[in-house]
């Protein structure tokens, strides 16, 4: 009897302790989120990056520059290139090579024809490898030519450690001869930082970003081949879209070498985050990527606020007229002065700042100019910095051009001055 009572008392105390721990943990999380003090506690991914999609600034990274295979997250590049270089109504004929791709596959057959739009849904919703190759061959002429397009686009975006070999992300390697004539082996790979940059481009800067989002956010899609002999249904397997408020898009990936990979985007309260995960576990740890995504996105939402850089106060000295030495004017004794303007903000209008970060603004303008000066000549800059690192630069330019004085100008001005003096004396 006594033992039973002690067990009940102990169970009751244990239950109260668990409730209190849960309460205090929840309270701590709420306090941290309100005061911007949360930190990334644990990530399963070997490599991870959280990026400000608007500016490209890395907000958090774990081995962000490690070069690793990226599996089917590759397909975001395949998709955006197809959208930018093709037409959704294009007719794609399936080759023998495309039809031979391994799982995951739509099971398209050689000689069949499909609309490019339908194959894009197949590739992005179900991650079909055969659809990706058919798309690549249609857009690039061959997989090899399309891979060149992928690498060129990656370089344009600013990716420095990415090597695309396949359009579907299957593990592959290629031997490339360097400038010294030596062969080096490259694997199909990227970094979490580069992958986040590619996704940021897809959703923010590409002229086809709206269609990209429409395709990748669609819950389900049905279509048939052009002859209507076979019908297909595709379902979106991106669980992140239902996992967090504001989830925009994303792409999963897995191969034996890459492990589970993911890249996704979230937009909330005017802030857009992109997170990329590489080598985020192997079977049976398929859910690790969702845990890491939530951890990174919660960190970004709690710790960063949006700042309008163009609203930062500037030193008025930047807008003063600048004397121009040896410049032509309308009168002999008149000095020239150049009016200047601050160039329009192009890409970086706003930036996500950590709650304890401050922006410093430095204006640098030339004190004197020398003719000849062309219109829109750069004469200074405004630098926006965080902890000494320049994050944005705006050029200060001249509004007009100035010609250099020559003998003809001097002669004409002297004559004009002489005539003007004589005219005044005669009056």
Structural account:
By secondary structure, this protein is of the alpha+beta class. It folds into two domains: 258 residues, 3-Layer(aba) Sandwich (Beta-lactamase); 115 residues, Peptidoglycan synthesis regulatory factor (PBP3), Domain 2, CATH 2.60.410. The protein has eleven helices and 20 strands. The strands form seven sheets. The chain has a five-stranded antiparallel sheet, with helices on both faces. β1 and β2 form a beta hairpin. The longest helix has 34 residues. It is elongated. Its EC number is 3.4.16.4. It holds the Pfam family Peptidase_S11. This is serine-type D-Ala-D-Ala carboxypeptidase. Removes C-terminal D-alanyl residues from sugar-peptide cell wall precursors. One of its GO terms (biological process) is regulation of cell shape.
CATH arch. level architecture of the largest domain: 3-Layer(aba) Sandwich
Detail the poorly predicted runs.
Answer: 14-37
Helical content (DSSP H or I, runs of 4+): 25-40%
**CATH H level of the largest domain: which superfamily?**
DD-peptidase/beta-lactamase superfamily
Name the strands of the widest sheet in spatial order.
2-1-11-10-9
Total DSSP E strands = 20
* End-to-end CA span: 130 Å
Function: Removes C-terminal D-alanyl residues from sugar-peptide cell wall precursors.
Pathway: Cell wall biogenesis; peptidoglycan biosynthesis
Organism: Roseburia zhanii
Family: Belongs to the peptidase S11 family.
